[in-house]
Specification:
Helices cover 48% and strands 0% of the residues. The protein has 403 residues and is mainly alpha-helical. Among the domains are: 154-198, no CATH class; 292-399, no CATH class. 38% of the residues are buried.
Length: 403
């Protein structure tokens, strides 16, 4: 290679990389060439001039390719907060080769812990027993708890303080604290999902569970005793404080007519999780539709073709017109009611409706009587299973609404 042709060297490096171990001193001391070479192969930092090993730009170009190349940087840069942080961000394991003095520097390690709490694993024993440093690391990475000192893990006052901020750590506290009611309640108050790691007696405490599922934390029912989710009376109480608990009930409770009826009355969408018998029960279906017409998408064709049920659906959710039969998408009364609730429902009306009423405004201003030339209208409660226009509507995910 022609070592005097810098332009040629740069092009060659960008194309094929370069092993600087074989380069002449002049090349190893050229910052521009060295940076390009280190970008391609971080360990080239080992062979650059001492002056450039102390150059921040050069070292950064190397560690971004290979964070472990920091070991070839100058001693000053191996202790530089910015350099070490960048190497650590590339691979936390680089902390294994960092000088032990740095690992015992509270200010420096706290700076790193704010970015990645995993540095706790590599901190000195002194810092693993330092409450302030430990909290900083855990606040960034809850898994840092496993690396703290045994003294802190067995310090009840410290554990209570940590559970007050990170209740889910109930799973990691020493076994001698596992039955400590004050600590358990502290954890649950901070994070109801800590119930998963609480003793069994807490998982079947009706009063406690009812308190936990308030404010939309119904999924905590994943962790309660089956005694509760199989108890109809308890689940009815749970329904009063959280309308979303239906799907967590046992199958036996979900098969109960009263419980299902009250559930869909609270939230129509609960019908999605009901059995097929209830999805075909007119009383339950009508109750669900009155709460949210979007439930129409979970029903069979007989309901989608029935004007009485579809009218009820579009009155509470105009966009449910998308799931009505083609026949009812061409019924001006149904379309009008849908557009009253949501003007965007006009998009799902039939082509004939669009032609006869070219805008939402014209639909809304239309006469209440069904136009005589609208040949596809049906009477309330009329099921026309032979209608060739009736077809099952595919539930395209892009047309689903947020529940």
């Amino acid at each position: 290679m022609e070592w005097n042709d810098k332009e040629y060297i740069l092009k060659s490096i960008k194309k094929n990389g370069m092993d600087l171990s074989r380069a002449v001193e002049k090349v190893r001391s050229d910052k521009e060439i060295v940076i390009e070479a280190c970008k391609q192969y971080g360990n080239n930092l080992e062979f650059v001039s001492d002056n450039l090993k102390n150059d921040e730009d050069v070292v950064l170009s190397a560690i971004r390719n290979n964070p472990f190349s920091i070991k070839f940087a100058s001693k000053d840069l191996q202790r530089d907060e910015y350099i070490v942080k960048n190497a650590m961000l590339e691979n936390i394991k680089v902390m294994e080769i960092i000088d032990n003095k740095i690992k015992d520097d509270k200010e420096f390690m706290s700076y790193l812990a704010k970015t990645n709490g995993r540095v706790m694993e590599f901190a000195s024993d002194r810092l693993k027993n330092d409450v302030d440093f430990v909290k900083t690391a855990i606040n960034n990475y809850i898994g840092a708890f496993q690396f703290i000192s045994e003294d802190l893990k067995n310090d009840r006052k410290f554990i209570k303080n940590i559970l007050n901020e990170h209740g889910i750590l109930l799973k990691d506290i020493p076994s001698k604290f596992k039955n400590d009611n004050e600590l358990i309640m502290t954890a649950l108050k901070n994070n109801c999902y800590a119930l998963e790691f609480a003793p069994k007696r807490y998982k079947k405490d009706q009063g406690l569970v009812l308190e936990l599922i308030k404010n939309s934390f119904e999924s905590v029912l994943h962790y309660v005793s089956e005694e509760l989710t199989s108890n109809k009376d308890f689940m009815l109480k749970a329904l009063e404080v959280n309308e979303n608990i239906y799907k967590y009930a046992s199958q036996e409770v979900k098969n109960d007519f009263e419980f299902t009826l009250k559930s869909v009355e609270k939230k129509g969408w609960n019908l999605e999780f009901a059995n097929n018998t209830f999805k075909n029960n007119k009383d339950i279906v009508m109750t669900a539709l009155k709460q949210n017409g979007g439930v129409l998408q979970f029903l069979n064709e007989s309901f989608r073709e029935n004007k009485e049920f579809v009218l009820e659906a579009v009155k509470t959710n105009g966009l449910s017109l998308a799931f009505a039969s083609n026949q009812l998408k061409n019924d001006i009364e149904v379309v009008r009611e849908a557009c009253k609730e949501d003007k965007h429902a006009y998009e799902f009306a039939s082509r004939e409706i669009h032609q006869q009423f070219p805008s939402v405004e014209k639909v809304l201003a239309s006469e209440k009587e069904i136009p005589k030339d609208n040949q596809w209208t049906t009477k309330p409660n009329e099921f026309d299973k032979s209608n060739p226009w009736s077809e099952k509507i595919n539930s395209d995910k892009d047309n689903q609404w947020e529940r």
